[in-house]
Design a protein that fits this description.
By secondary structure, the chain is an alpha/beta fold. Helix content is about 20%, strand content about 35%. The chain folds into two domains: about 10-65; about 80-130, Signal recognition particle alu RNA binding heterodimer, srp9/1. It comes from Prauserella cavernicola.
C-alpha cells in the first residue's frame, strides 16, 4: 500500500456520534473500536472510541477517537478538512449535510478565482472547506 495522509480528529466523548454522522454524509464502511475492547471493560471510558476509521466510496479515509484519559482535549482553529473536486452535485451534497446543523463561515458560492467555495464548522466543531472547481480549471 502506498503512503496516505488521513485526517485524524479528536473528540471529548462524542467520537461515536461524530463518526456515524460522517458516515451518513459520505457513506462507506465505518469501523469503531472502544477502549474497553483493548483494556479494562469496566473502566469509565470503556464505551468510548479508542479508534474509528471511515473508508468512503470516493476514496476518503477519515479517522477519529475520543481523547484518552490523562490527555487534554483542547479544540482549536488550527486545522480544517478540505474537500475539493469538480463533481458539483457530490460536493454540494456533502456541504448541505456538514453545514446543516453547523455554522457557515463563508457561504458556498462562486468566488473571485472562479470556483465555488464555502467554509463551515459542523455540529461537532470540525472546520470544513469545500471547493468546487469550474470546468476546465
Amino acid at each position: 500500500m502506498a503512503s496516505r495522509l488521513n485526517p485524524y480528529l479528536s473528540y471529548d466523548g462524542t467520537a461515536k456520534q461524530a463518526m456515524e454522522f460522517y458516515q451518513s454524509v459520505f457513506g462507506g464502511s465505518l469501523s469503531l473500536n472502544t477502549f474497553g475492547e483493548f483494556g479494562d471493560s469496566k473502566a469509565p471510558e470503556a464505551d468510548k472510541i479508542m479508534h474509528g476509521s471511515l473508508e468512503t466510496p470516493s476514496g476518503f479515509t477519515l479517522m477519529g477517537a475520543d481523547t484518552p484519559p490523562g490527555m487534554e482535549y483542547k479544540p482549536g482553529n488550527t486545522m480544517s478538512v478540505s474537500l475539493s473536486g469538480d463533481d458539483a452535485k457530490e460536493l454540494r451534497g456533502y456541504w448541505e449535510k456538514l453545514s446543516g446543523d453547523g455554522t457557515v463561515a463563508v457561504p458556498l458560492e462562486k468566488q473571485m478565482w472562479g470556483d465555488e467555495f464555502g467554509m463551515c464548522v459542523d455540529k461537532f466543531g470540525v472546520s470544513w472547506l469545500v471547493n468546487i472547481s469550474t470546468p476546465g480549471s
